[in-house]
Amino acid sequence: MRVVVAPLDEFPPDSRRIVRVGVREIGVFRVGERFYEVRNRCPHQGAPVCAGRVSPRIVSGRPGEFALDAGAPLLVCPWHGWQYDLASGQSYSPGDPRVKSYGVSVASGEELVAGPYVVETYPVNVSERYVVLEA
After folding, report:
1. Domain residues of the chain, as ranges?
2. Least C-beta-crowded within 10 Å: which of 8, 49, 72, 85?
3. Rounded to two decimals, what is the model's pTM?
4. Which class is domain 8-107?
5. pLDDT in tens, 103-133
6. What pLDDT is recorded for position 131?
7. How far apart are CA 89 and CA 47, in angstroms?
8. Is 11 exposed, middle or buried (0-12, 13-18, 19+ CB in 10 A)?
């Protein structure tokens, strides 16, 4: 399923949107020029995790030295501080459950309009005097 979130020029760098897809809320993040999507539900206690802060990873080769990692940032749960990799949904702490992540892309309007459009169909038959849907 493809869901259009927003025109690219209306989604500035370092911003986020929460979209509803069926019964799920999904957070869409633009960090610089990269996009990430994760489910807006912390697996720890159900917090709206996408309301949390986005933080770069800090890496260190030895004590007293550190740098900011250029890879995927971390999303920090606003309730208890659990941290998740925005690209994969993996918890920063080994063994903790991950948050569901999704694929995201930038597509031209022509690609979205081109289709093919397929509607779900079901067999229908008439049995005596009743129309019966085969779902």
Report:
1. 8-107
2. 8
3. 0.75
4. mainly beta
5. 888 887 766 666 556 666 777 676 666 656 6
6. 59
7. 15
8. middle
